[in-house]
Amino acid sequence: MKIPDQARDILREHGPTAPVWRRRVAILGGAVMIGLVALVFAHLADWAGERFVVLAARWWWAPLILTPLGYATIAGLTARFAPAARGSGIPQVMAATGDPDHAMGALVSAKTVIVKLALTIGTLLVGASTGREGPTVQVAASIMGYAHRLMAIPLRASVFIAGGAAGVAAAFNTPLAGVAFAIEELAATYEQRITLLVMTAVLIAGMVSLGVSGDYVYFGIMRQTLSARETLLAAPVAGVLGGLMGAFFSRVVIATGRTRWSRLVWLRARPMVFAGALGAIVAVIGVTSGLTWGTGYSAARGIITGADVPHWFGLAKLVTTLATAVSGMPGGIFAPSLAVGAGVGDMLRWIFPTYPGGAIVLLGMVAYFTGVVRAPLTAVIIISETTGSRGLMLPLLGSALIADVVAQAVSKERLYHVLSQAFVPPEAPQQHDGTSRPELPPR
Predict the structure, then answer these.
(1) What is the pLDDT of residue 327?
(2) pLDDT in tens, 105-115
């Protein structure tokens, strides 16, 4: 029986093969896959970090050999096989929004993200002060891109924004933080169609993470609160100290990439030598302190719950994270930055000894994280969701806003925006959403 032309048109526009349904399948399938991959990646990353800690505890001298050699080897493999896999992964996603089709062949290609996954695990196996959250964002953006390609849906910048946001949500089990990060960092514009895509991807990825791993809180529940008087005194101090230290980190990372100092230029031209030297710094600090290896998750959680750590832990963790960040190896700075922030909070506990210790530590974490990433809303939501500290929302927001102002005064440029320029073609086209790319600082 011949189908009437009008019925055929209706089926083409609204039937199961219509673009709207293929787009929904791409979003659903991509978000589910992001949640599953993020969970597997998290477990492998934790396993790798634990194995190194066991090794360092058994043979204290082993990191002095393994870490520099590991840094040099991983940096060399990255530079040779997948240069776009170096570093965090968030700058790559930001750059990918300018030309989604080109990005699928380079910045978020299957080869790039597979190398990213494998070598990030490798960095944790050699004791690097790095995190998995940034790499998860790059991998998630790639998964969402391939899901849309599989369903023959044209790629837009919003596809990568939604994928990256879902990656943040799945990595921390914090859906609201994924949305906030999309608004503050990944998206140049946040239109209604992007809103729907981001919200859908984040919620599905979050539900997959919740369903498989259970309702866990990343750093554990923290119920302490601060009075109005305590907030008025502690929040500004935390904001200034955390903002200054975070801005220092960003400025050094940016300056290292731009410097014309001949010796550093010579080292940067030899990535294995450069990374090996930085790995030696990480090894010496790690062996001396015994606290700065890996993501810093355990140390941060211990500080929040009242464990005693040396007051110099925050500075030591900052140096090792800085050395890793500029070494050219794959790995993120989210978790290590939260660990440094916990160290900042421990310094604040010494300044405010009678205040609730856990609450003061969270002020330091949100302030330092804001100083580095310059995304105060994301920082507040991440800390609130990963600690269940909803009673501290106002003090956290106060510290984050002050830290953002302080960091902006010290470092005008935002770290991820500057780093993304290394992955942007000289003449980047308009986004496929029809909007122009934001003007980013020159590299």
Answers:
(1) 92
(2) 889 999 999 99
Model pLDDT, residue 64: 96
Q: State both tokens at 141.
A: 């953006």
Does position 396 have pLDDT exceeding 50, yes or no? yes
pLDDT band per the 50, 70, 90 thresholds, residue 442: very low
Q: Report the C-alpha gap between 402 and 383 in whole angstroms.
A: 16
Q: Is the pLDDT of residue 441 over 70?
A: no
CA–CA separation, 181 and 378 (whole Å): 5
State residue 19's pLDDT score: 75
The whole-model pTM stands at: 0.87
Q: Could you tell me the domains of the chain?
A: 16-213 (1.10.3080.10), 228-423 (1.10.3080.10)
5-22 pLDDT, tens digit per residue, is 554 454 455 545 567 788
Whole-number Cα distances in Å, 189 to 202, 207, 425, 433, 436: 18, 26, 20, 9, 9
CA atoms of 352 and 58, how far apart (whole Å): 37
Q: Is the model's pLDDT at 384 over the cut of 80?
A: yes
Q: At which residue do the structure tokens 């990060």 appear?
A: 181
Would you say residue 190 has pLDDT above 90?
A: no
Mean pLDDT of 398-405: 96
